[in-house]
Sequence to fold (308 residues):
Amino acid sequence: MNGIVNVLKPPGMSSHQVVGFLRRTLKLKKIGHAGTLDPGASGVLPLMVGSATRLSNYLMSDQKTYVTEVTLGISTSSQDASGETLDLKTDFSLTPTELADALAELHGTIWQTPPMASAIRVDGTRLYELERQGITIPREPRQVQVHSINIMAIWSEEEGKIGFGTRILLRVTCSKGTYIRTLCHDLGEKLGVGAHMSFLTRTASGPYGSHQAYTLEEIASYVEQGDFRFLLPMNTALTDWIQVKVHPLVHDRIKHGNFILPEHFLDVPETLTVGDEVVLLSLEGDVLALATIKKADQLICQPFRVFM
Fold:
């Protein structure tokens, strides 16, 4: 059994617990996820089943889209609602222009210092394990990309006033490795009033969106019925790649990592050039290998990751 399961993770479960649920439900061990979601967060969590686990690097590198709520005036130890309150600023009033200017500074290429409540390893120990022991250590800032950040709604105790307790709903599209809780925290710092992330859901991870995701209850129900509609083909994870079907007679060459020629392709959606990366498919649409177009005496297609 190989493929991708687009899971709608519920709040309260860790990503590892969701993987464990699917392993028990499908009675398979070879299952992994493509990008951790915090236990308190919900949303899209693509899981890779069987040979699809070898696509992890490609799924992990895809951009993500989140909807998050920022609460102004309250800073917490974890940068989200689960942490202890570190600071309160109750007497302030911001203008929409000040808010827009601060958000603009968080758009594009930015640097983030990972929170202690993160899964990054330092000397073999995850930061969140140190945080649970009350230990805080210096962290190196990391460069990330925020492709877009938009205000969806603003809720305030006083109409027309952006002050203490105001909640701002944002839609953020960003690169892998972006910490949304840190983005919320940094917004509060730029505004000079403090802030924390009070809600988070991931609405898209690469090609997988929340409108196509399955709940754990739905997956369990389908498995009981012997219905595996939720198991998506591996090539759905590679929508930006050139995908070509190849002649069955060259399957053995591909299996052993040997090059094939473009004349062995049964369909070529566009002109191929040196350096192109392609997905090689069987007639049935199963992923056989990932390959690169190279130049020898002529153009050749060289597999570099074989799934057969």
Summary: The mean pLDDT is 91. DSSP finds seven helices and 18 strands in the chain. The chain has three domains: 3-62+206-234, 65-200, 241-306. The CA atoms of residues 246 and 266 lie 5 Å apart.
